[in-house]
Structure formats: structure tokens, C-alpha cells
Amino acid sequence: ISYCGLALRHVTKDFKLQNFILGCFMYDMESQTAPNIRQFVESHLLSFGLTLDDSKFVVTDNENKMRAAFKTGCIRVGCSIHYLNKQVEHSFTSTDIDHKPVNCHTAQDLFERTKRIVAHVRRSHRQMKLERKLQTYSDTRFSGAFYMLEVFLKVYDELPGVLNKHFMDDFVSIDKELMKELCDFLELFDRVINDFSEEERPTSDLVIPYRQLLIDHCKINRDDSVGLKELKLFIGERIKLAWIPQDEHYIATLLHPSLKHFDTSPKDKDKAINLVKNELLKHVPVVDDTSQTTATTNMITKKT
């Protein structure tokens, strides 16, 4: 059974942001093709007296069927949280992406061993002996890898008391220092995702500065471990390739009083200025020079 959640964000004339949860609806179409998804969404919007058109923005995840479903008849904006979370997910769980190998073997080995131990402890009900409840990994939860590793690290020294010999082999193979490095590295990603999830204000103006912040965060330092270097290299490149800002993000950043100087990415400022100019020109009335000249000539003739 699949479900589709619909939410509405509306900015009032006095620039107040309003959030409405329209509902979480059971998907009852025969297949999840792009036309069916579009029809399903439009039918539920219509029940609220809402319709899509070229002036409406639609934010969705970035799967191909969602991109195709909202390609026309609205302005689709890809969800930045989804873009970001997917790249972190790939770094821990994928062997290849876009026909290229994911070279994060050290971090993936640690991740898989941790996941096995967490599953065992929760299944055996031994976590009652731990100070914190271990978190299982879920690919549908944002920052899922970070939360699992973070809690595991906090109870690391307690775990030998609840593990049998089979899982102790996994445990002793986990590099605690590497796990701490990974948690420290991933913490910023979690903070960015939380900021993007803000419900009291629009966040499209944060996309460009935060994207650049994370790219800079992925720069390799001399004292980084091999495992962290692999992770940084992969995620940094994936952010550049997969998370591409849209025109709306450039415009929103330029219009923000504190971000308009593009301090984190100065090279993007000229593009943003041109985009804003083009948007303004769309709303400037077109003057018919021929009619204006004719009218002026007639006035001169009458005076003469």
C-alpha cells in the first residue's frame, strides 16, 4: 500500500507564511506512472478547490516519475532535503551510482557492521541494559545513518556487555575513532536538513549558501582518515553533480537582505542579477512605439 502526502504553503499579502496539511491519502491508482500520479494529485487538490497552473510552485522529491509528473502545468522545484539525503544514503548503501562505483568501502564496512549489531540488540531485547536506545537505520528517515551512528557511538563502551561472541567479532572490527569522525562530519548535514525543514519561513534562499557550505565541508584535510577522505570525496562530487540549484533559488538568495552579496559563492551573483532582471522585464508593460509616434504626429498636425 502506498500513500501520498499533500501540504500547502501560502504566503499572504503581508508576507506571512501559512502551512496547511491537506492530508495523507492512500494511493489507489492502478500504477505509479507519471500521468497517474499527476491525475491523483490533481483530483485531491480539486476536492479542496485548488488547481495547478504555471504560476503555482510544486515541491516534490527528485525521482524520475515525480519529475515527469510535474514537468508542465506548474513550476516544479526539487526538494533540497531529498537531494542531500540521497547522496549521503548512497555513500553508505550503494555500490554504484549512475554507472560509476561508489568508493566508500571503509565507511560502508563500518556502517554494515553497526547496522547488524543494532538489529541484533533490538531483536534480542538487550538494549534495556543500555543507557540509550539504539536507533535502527531507515532509508525513509532523513539523516538516518547519522542518527544510528551517533547513538551507537554514545553507548559504544556499554555494548560488549550485551553482545554474544558472534557479534563481538563485528564489534571489535569497528573503528571507534572513524565512527567519531563520521559523526562529526555528518552533523552539519543534519543541521542543514533541519534548517531546510523550517516551517515558519521560506527556505529557498538557503539552498545556494548551504550547498556551497557543504561542498566546502567536503574538502579533504591532511589529517583525515582514509575512510573519511573516501566519504568526503564521494559526497562532495555528488552534491555538485546531483544537487543543481534552480533559477528560483538564485532569485530568492539575491532578494534576501543578508544573503544578496553571495559571500559563499560570489560567482553566482551575476547569474542571479540577470534572472531578477528578466523576471522584472516580464512585468513591464510593452509600449507600442508605432502607435505612440502616430499619436504624437497627429497632435503636432492639429496644432499646426
From TrEMBL:
- InterPro entries the UniProt entry points to: RNaseH-like_sf (IPR012337), ZnF_BED_domain_contain (IPR052035)
Single GO MF descriptor: zinc ion binding
Q: Domain of life here?
A: Eukaryota
Q: Does the keyword Zinc apply?
A: yes
Please give the chief subcellular localization of this protein: nucleus
Q: Do you know which PANTHER family this protein is assigned to?
A: ZINC FINGER BED DOMAIN-CONTAINING PROTEIN 39, ZINC FINGER BED DOMAIN-CONTAINING PROTEIN 4
Q: What is this protein's record name?
A: Uncharacterized protein
Provide the species name.
Adineta ricciae (Rotifer)
